[in-house]
Design brief:
Two copies of one chain form a homodimer. The first copy, chain A, is mainly alpha-helical. Chain A has five helices and two strands; from the N terminus they run H-H-E-E-H-H-H. In chain A, strand 1 and strand 2 form a beta hairpin. The longest helix of chain A has about 45 residues. Chain A binds a DNA duplex (30 and 30 nucleotides) through helix 2.
DNA sequence: CTTGACCTTCACATTGATGTGAAGGTTTGA
DNA sequence: TCAAACCTTCACATCAATGTGAAGGTCAAG
């Protein structure tokens, strides 16, 4: 598919699809006329990228993480240098931290909303 | 405590403590000489702020969330406008999305690391 | 064969979170 | 009393992600 369709299907501005490519996160083919030609799996991939960006990860890190999501993954094993392994371990830790923080705050918001609801209900009677 | 101590105890540059204040996230008192004077609870608060920023939330949203974490919370109920409630509900949704995304990717990294470990182990024998 | 809807590259602007440092006031201890 | 170690405000710089738009090539339908 071309950039317009990928943009539609992922809700992502064309500008950013080109930016993600520049950062090495997606690698579209090129048609004879120079147009980018995206394989179907890029829809999921772009959604993943956006999700991770939204969760605070920079493109530099996302680039390291993406190969973990590709299946079959066996292809990448030889590339797995010790440094890369260490980086992934570290990032997994940081993601755990983020998850803990978000969960805590999400629950606190939930408790607050419940309390407000109960308060309003009591007021109304 | 003064800004230097808070900076030390939270691992946060002074510059950013002033920035968070400017954004309305913390409200230190002022000593007679003009120095900022932070109450002890600000240590936790700043850690919270940094965690949420790291998880991709902008200060504008964090400002809305912070009151949910204060106890006792009853004080804030009258301030809870319908718009605020709606905002909090929406943000809770977005935080859920982030948690799902991070969890999925963290698990994928874990699987990948396990697979690499198994692969290396097999190689070594 | 031209018009409209695509696509290309390129450049510049903006925004939010940060870094850096100047110029100057305050406090504490030698 | 002076130096070191704090603090203040203010201004300007940077970085990553994103917005905006110009100048121009491609292609399908009328």
């Amino acid at each position: 598919m071309r950039i317009g369709e990928l943009s539609e299907r992922t809700g992502t501005p064309r500008r950013l699809l080109r930016y993600y490519e520049e950062q090495g996160l997606i690698l579209p083919e090129r048609a004879a006329n120079g147009y980018r030609d995206y394989a179907g799996y890029n829809v999921d991939r772009v959604v993943q990228i956006r999700g991770l960006l939204d969760a605070g990860l920079p493109t530099r890190i996302i680039k390291q993480i993406l190969p973990c999501l590709d299946k079959p993954r066996a292809i990448y094993f030889p590339d797995a240098t010790p440094e890369m392994i260490a980086t992934l371990r570290g990032e997994r830790e940081r993601m755990d931290d983020r998850i803990r923080c978000l969960t805590r705050n999400r629950d606190a918001i939930g408790d607050y909303l419940d309390a407000v609801l109960a308060y309003d209900h009591a007021e109304a009677t």
